[in-house]
Specification:
Elements: E1 14-15, E2 20-26, E3 34-40, E4 47-49, H1 56-68, E5 78-80, H2 86-89, H3 92-99, E6 102-106, H4 107-117, H5 121-135, H6 139-144, E7 158-160, E8 173-177, E9 186-190, E10 195-199, H7 222-234, E11 240-243, H8 252-275, E12 281-282, H9 283-289, H10 301-320, E13 324-327, E14 334-337
Parallel strand pairs: 4-5, 5-6, 6-7, 10-11
Antiparallel strand pairs: 1-2, 2-3, 3-4, 8-9, 9-10, 12-14, 13-14
Helix pairs in contact: 7-8, 8-10, 9-10
Keywords: Hydrolase
Pfam family, one: Lactamase_B
GO molecular function: hydrolase activity
Length: 340
């Protein structure tokens, strides 16, 4: 079952056996390359797990890939979205238009989609610019990092909760709430085949982005949620994993443990960095000190904004654990180590 990641140009739709197929759908201009959209067979038409990015090339790949596998996009019964991000939910609306399919996602991400749809573009830019400024970015950086937003995905017809069965006649596909990457991220356990669709929660070669937005929120702990969700997925044991990116792989529990260890190590290194600096630091300053896949000076404004979101999530978890304290009532917000 295991296949290694290849460039999108070398990807092909695949029959994974047991009434499950995968269709690689490109993400133009994105280093991830593609989203793996899965089709699960049912007597009343296939149900898709995710749909891919809203782009003409992506639509051609999705509809053409399904046709290669003997399925017409017009026969799709439903699209269950692992989370609201555009490389997963972007084409769900077009699938619905072509087939009359329902769209389902977790209720927490559905609430975010409603918020996005009701938020004007200029208001979004102002919100992001203010958020970056409160994190410690200078005004120019804040403006540069606040653009480039994708259009909101289609609003879902159905909302799922943890443990709900997806409307998939003749099969048992159960939602497993795994917050962290987004508040409403779900994995999907295909119980009749004992496989797990992992979305972006557990990927074989990379770790998903876990950030906090706005950066200075003190009422949520996305990284803490993510670590607990990894423990929950590890409890499924050595199931085959069908992720949304890269390649399918065995033993989801082992990979979940590796990702958990990665973040625990990152938290420890961040604690050490903060302990070396007696003065309180802004989120932006902390992000610039952390290790990324490229040096901070080489990151684009958009990637710096994402790095700041991830730095904020790690700081928040350290705050919850009692290792750092927040200097409230100041702008930009600052954090300081409480122990060595």
């Amino acid at each position: 079952m295991k296949t290694r990641r290849r460039p999108y140009t070398e990807q092909r739709p695949q029959d994974l056996g047991g009434g499950v197929w995968s269709v690689p759908v490109p993400i133009p201009g994105n280093p991830l390359g593609y989203t793996l959209v899965y089709a699960v067979e049912s007597p009343q038409g296939p149900v898709l797990v995710d749909a891919g990015w809203n782009h003409p090339e992506a639509w051609e790949a999705l509809s053409g890939g399904l046709a290669t596998l003997g399925m017409d996009v017009a026969s799709v019964r439903g699209v269950v979205v692992t989370h609201f991000h555009p490389d997963h939910a972007g084409l769900a609306g077009q699938v619905r238009e072509a087939s009359g399919a329902w769209i389902a996602m977790h209720e927490d991400d559905a609430a975010l989609v409603r918020l996005m749809i009701g938020y004007a573009g200029d208001a979004q830019d102002t919100f992001r610019s203010d958020m970056l400024r409160r994190a410690g970015a200078d005004p120019d950086e804040a403006r540069e990092a606040s653009g480039g937003r994708a259009a909101p995905p289609a609003q879902p017809d159905r909302e799922l909760r943890d443990g709900d069965l997806v409307d998939l006649p003749g099969r048992r596909l159960r939602a497993v709430h795994t917050p962290g990457h987004t508040p409403g991220h779900i994995c999907l356990h295909l119980e009749d085949a004992d496989r797990l669709f992992t979305g972006d929660h557990v990927l074989p070669g990379i770790t998903p982005h876990v950030g906090i937005y706005p950066y200075d929120r003190d009422d949520v702990d996305p990284l803490g949620d993510f670590l607990r969700s990894l423990d929950r997925v590890a409890g499924f044991g050595p199931l085959d994993a069908l992720p949304a990116h890269e390649w399918t792989f065995p033993n989801v529990a082992a990979r979940a443990a590796e990702i958990r260890d990665h973040h625990e190590d990152k938290l420890q290194r961040l604690r050490a960095l903060l302990a070396e600096r007696p003065e309180p630091l802004t989120i932006w300053e902390v992000a610039a000190m952390m290790t990324w896949n490229r040096p901070w000076d080489e990151l684009s404004p958009m990637l710096r904004g994402m790095a700041a979101g991830e730095a904020a999530a790690h700081l928040r978890t350290l705050e919850v654990q009692g290792h750092v304290r927040r200097h409230a009532g100041v702008e930009p917000v600052r954090f300081q180590a409480l122990d060595s």
